[in-house]
């Protein structure tokens, strides 16, 4: 058991970084084509915000594996965001970019103020619960394609490599958060993420990538 805990604790931050690296091929394609096409900006702005919240939580709770891995998320999210904004030429892009930038900036400033104004334990508790909320939204978001998958009998819209990376990441953080850190704010959202990943893998195994009528990506 101790060996498993040690293994999960060691792998968890690296699995987190692996998930942060998942959008890299898409962003490199954007840079190559000099166009964002129909890609949304939200995944990249939310990566910055969510990762920053966990950096703050990790610093307040003195959890190096949490703040160091999420610092990578902030850095990569900023790179993705910058690349997206550089090549986004869709109508109304400027307004959209400003909205996302201001939203991420507000979250960053708000959490920095909490850390400065409140007592350390109280700030950590509030920021941790905020992080739980963000994580649950991010982990559950791919399930919006559930109806589409069931209607088309095709799971082609579920990316298998990323889903597997999320499964291993959430498993490692769930085990580490529950047994080693004993931290609700760590294990609870990752248990939810693990459930979402299992649901997606189940759909992938049930329907595969076969494409039937109307099996394009959901609108």
Automatic annotation (TrEMBL):
InterPro entries: SWEET, SWEET_rpt. It comes from the Eukaryota. Keywords: Cell membrane, Golgi apparatus, Membrane, Repeat, Sugar transport, Transmembrane, Transmembrane helix, Transport. GO terms for cellular component: Golgi membrane; plasma membrane. It is a multi-pass membrane protein. It is found in: Cell membrane; Golgi apparatus membrane. One of its GO terms (molecular function) is sugar transmembrane transporter activity. Pfam families: MtN3_slv. The chain crosses the membrane at residues 54-81, 101-119, 131-150, 162-180, 186-203. Belongs to the SWEET sugar transporter family. This is Sugar transporter SWEET1. It comes from Skeletonema marinoi.
